[in-house]
Amino acid sequence: MPTATQTMDSTTAVSQHTNRLITEKSPYLLQHAHNPVDWYPWGEEALARAKREDKPIFLSIGYSTCHWCHVMERESFENPDIAQLLNRSFVCIKVDREEHPDLDQVYMHAVTMMTGQGGWPLTVFLTPDLKPFFGGTYFPPERKGERAGMKEVVPAVAEAWTHRRAELLASAEHLTQSLSEQLAATAPPTAVTPELLHTAFSQAVNMFDATTGGFGEAPKFPRSHELSFLLTYWYRTRTGQALEMVTTTLDHMARGGIYDHLGGGFHRYSTDGQWLIPHFEKMLYDQALLAKTYLEAYRVTKRPDYAEVARGICDYVLRDLTSSEGAFYSAEDADSEGEEGTFYAWTPQQVAQALGADAELFNRFYGVTAEGNFSAEGGSASGGEHHTNVLHIEQPLDMFAKVKGLDAQRVVAQLQSDRATLLAARDARVRPHRDDKVLTSWNGLMIASLAYGASTLSEPRYLEAATRAAECILTHLRRDRQLLRRYRDGDARYAGTLEDYAFFCEGLLQLYEASGEARWLKEAKSFAATMVERFWDGSGSGFFLRDKDEAPLIVRSKDLYDGATPSGNSMAALVLLKIGRMTGDRHLEELARRALEGVAHTVERTPFGYPQLLIAVDMALGPIKEIVVAGDPAAPQTVQMRRAIHERFLPRAVTLLHPAGEAGKTIEALAPFVASQQPLQGRPTAYVCENFVCARPATDVNALIERLEPTN
Fold it and tell me: Based on the structure, what is the number of domains in the chain?
C-alpha cells in the first residue's frame, strides 16, 4: 500500500515515516505525526480534498494528556492495516480539542446526541460539507463485547457511503438541524430572580454526598465552581448547610488521593466516590479553579489548612507548569513508562528506601500498606500482586497524633521533612509527558487565581507570577485589540474564542484588584469591548463561542454549560458586570444583564448545572459594593485598608485604588467617578458605596471593616 507520505504533496512530505502533522506545534498532533494514517490538521487543504474527491471525513479529536487517546493511537492509528482502511476511503483529520474548543463542542454534542455519551478520544464521520452522520468515542481495533472495533466500523461506514449514501445524508441533515436548534437557539428574555439561586441550592442538596462530599456518584469531578457558587449563596442567605457542603467536600478532597500530597496540585478526577484513586492527569484549569475555591473558603473560615492547600496548588504550578517566559503550560499526563499512575504511587519498600527509620510514621499517616490500594492495570486494588499505594490521609493530623500518643508539632515537622525527601526521590523517576502549549483562556484562569492568592495571603511571589504571565500573553498572543488562542515554540495561532477573552479579562481584573495598577483594568476594558464586538449575538441571547470572522462551522454555537471549566457566557457576563461597575459604564452592565436574561430560560430547569452563571446572576441581583481606597499605595494605612478588603470574602464587590498624582489620572480616565473620592485630611480614605448610596468615608481601618459587613 502507499505510505502516508506517498499520498502527500512533495512540499509537505518530511520523511517516509511522517505525515502532515509533523509541521504542527500541538503536542497532541505531534504525537500522531509518525502514524501510518494519512493525517491532516484541520484546515482548508483537508476540507478541499474531501470535497474534490467526494470522500467522507474521519475526524479524530483528543488532547495530548488523554489516556484513552494514547491507547487508541497505539492500538489503531499505529496499526498499518487499520491505517490502510482509513487512508483508502476517508480524508483523515486530527484535531487538538484544546486548540479548537469551538469545533470540539459542535462534534462532541453531535456524538452525545447519537450515542448518549461523549468523551475523548472523539471519533466522528462527516460528509464532505462537515455534517456528522456517525460517531463514538474510543473504538478498540477489534470488537470487545458490545463495543464495535475499528476493523469493523471503518469498512462498514465506507460501504454505507458507497451504497446507502442518501440515507447517511438524510441522517446528517437531520442531526445538523438538531444541533442548530440546541447549540445556537435563541429564547425570549426571562427575568433572573433569586428563585434561580434557591432552586440551584435545592438541587445541590439533593445531589450532595454527605459522607465524603461532592455531588453524585463515582467518578467524582472537582467542579469547584459548584462550591464557589455555594459560597456566594451562603454569603447572600447565611444558609449554614451551603457552607457545610463546601467544607465537607474541600476537606475530603484535600485528604484524598486526588490531591498530590508530595508535589501539590490536584489530579483530574476521582475514579471512586471517596476521592481516593484519581485519574492522574493534572490540568492547569483544575489548579486555577481549585486554588480560587480553597482561597475563597479560607477567606470565609480563616482555616489555615485551606490556605495551605491553595499554596500547594500555586507552588506546583509555579514549579512544574511555568515556562521560562512566565506563561503557564496546559497539563501533565496521567501515564509514564506506559502505565497510568506509576510516577505517583508508592510501595512501603520504596518509602523505606528513601526515609529509613522515618518510613513507619509516614506510611501510617499516608495509608501506605503492603496490600496497597492501587493497581495500574485496574485502578483500585482488589487482590493480586504488585499493588502500590496512592498517598492519602485517613485521619486529620491532630487526631492521628492524639490516637498515636505523639506530639502534633513534632509530627508536622517530621512529615514536612519526609515529604520533601520523597518529592526529591520522585523527581528522579520518569516524569509524565507535559503539554507545554500556552492557552490564553487557561492562563487567564490561573492569572486570576494567583492574583487572588497574592491578595488573600499577602504573597508577592504570586502577584509577580501573575504579572509575568499576563505580560507574556499580551506580548505573544495579542494582535492589536484581538487575542489569539495558542502559543508554543514561538508560534502563536488561531483566533481567540469567547472563553479566551472572558477568562483573560477575569485574570486582568483580579490582577488589577491585587496590584492596584490601572493598566490592567484598561486592558480588560479594551478586550471586553472586542469580545462584545466579535461574539455578541445580536438577538440578545448571549455570546457565540466562535469569532464572527472565522470560517463558519455547520453551527455557530454558544457554550452555556459550566463543565470542567466555566462557560464563556458565564464568565463574559461576570466580567462585563465587574468592568461596568468599576468604570461606571452602564452599557456593559446592561449587556451582561441581557446576556443572563437571554439564557435564563435554558438554565432554569437545572440551574445547578450552571454554577458559574449563577455567580454572575448573584452579582447582577446585587447589591454590589463599590469600594475605592484613595491614598498613596505605599502608605501603611492604605496597605492596611486594602488588606482588610482582601482578607474578606466579598463576592459582590469591586475594588479600585485611587492614588494621587499622575497615577491617579489614569484611573480617573477609566472611572471618572473616582475623581471626587480623595484622601481626607491628608489621610488614606476608603469610600464604600452600595445601591448608589455611599457610606461616610472611612479614614481608619476599623471604620472600613464596619462598612464591609453584608447588609442583606
Answer: 4
